[in-house]
Amino acid sequence: MRFWLLDIASEPGARIDLWLKDETCSTWLCRLSYPQSFYIVGLGDKALALLEAEGLRFEKCRKRVRGKPVDAFKIYARRDDLEDYAAKLAKRMGDVEVYEADLRSSVKYLLERDVRPCSWIEVDAPEVGVEDSVHVLGEGEVRQAEDAPPPRLRTAAIDVVFFAERGSARPDRDPVRLISLCFD
Questions:
Q1: Using CA atoms, how far apart are residues 161 and 53, in angstroms rounded to an integer?
Q2: CATH superfamily for domain 2-34+108-144
Q3: Beta partners for residue 5, in sequence order
Q4: Inter-residue contact 79 to 36 (CB < 8 Å)
Q5: Alpha-carbon separation of residue 71 from 39, 41, 59, 63 (angstroms)
Q6: What is the bridge-based pairing of β-strands 37-41 and 97-99?
Q7: Assuming Cys at both sites, which of 13, 75, 125, 149 could form a disulfide with 137, CB separation 3.0 to 4.6 Å?
Q8: The pLDDT value given to residue 171
Q9: First to last CA, the chain
Q10: Given 3-state DSSP classes, what are the helix, strand and coil percentages for the chain, each rounded to the nearest 5?
């Protein structure tokens, strides 16, 4: 089926949720398994033994680092603290470099699957139910569809202005000064 990709969200437990609209503007949710991963470059035999001892799933692959192809290992880890875990693992391994541990799963999914947000996608997945008038799709295959005009959706924009005296705005210290809303 063909859907307009509205939003993508990372959920705990190695899951990605795709929020979709079909051509009749009905709302759909596609729940997909997507294991978190990162890349390590510069692994030696000692490091491989450590990965095996940690019980991690990994695979050898080619990656481009600073424009040059290098041998790398893609490490799969079901952890909420992936970035911290990857840094600690790299420290224990020694002279290795870690890549993409800081990317959110949702962003990584879009990059690896070559899917663009706010565009049409094809989804081959079974409908598994309806929750709060949202049709839910199970596991399936997702791919980019041909470009076409977007569906007729109502749009809303919100802009909130904070005045922070220092650093990023914090709700306990910096008041909201202005809220702007715009509807089509």
A1: 50
A2: Nucleic acid-binding proteins (2.40.50.140)
A3: 20
A4: yes
A5: 10, 7, 11, 6
A6: antiparallel
A7: 125
A8: 77
A9: 28
A10: 15, 45, 40
3-class DSSP state of 131: strand
Are the beta carbons of 30 and 17 closer than 8 angstroms? yes
Per-domain residue ranges of the chain: 2-34+108-144, 37-102, 154-184
For the record, the structure tokens of 57 come out as: 């799933």
| Interacting residues of 145 by C-beta distance below 8 A, sequence separation 6+ | 2, 119, 120, 121, 122
Give the H or E element holding residue 109.
helix 105-113
Name, in order, each residue with C-beta under 8 angstroms of 62's C-beta and a sequence gap of 6 or more: 69, 70, 71, 72
Considering the domain delimited by 37-102, tell me its CATH architecture: 2-Layer Sandwich (3.30)
As a whole number of angstroms, the distance between CA 10 and CA 36 comes to 10
3-state secondary structure of 108: helix
Q: What is the pTM of this model?
A: 0.77
Paired with 124 in beta bridges are 141
Asked whether the domain spanning 37-102 has the same topology as the one spanning 2-34+108-144, the reply is no
Whole-number percent of the chain with pLDDT over 70: 99
pLDDT higher than threshold 90 for residue 125: yes
70, 122, 119, 78: which is closest to 99 by C-alpha?
70
Residue position matching structure tokens 């051509």: 23
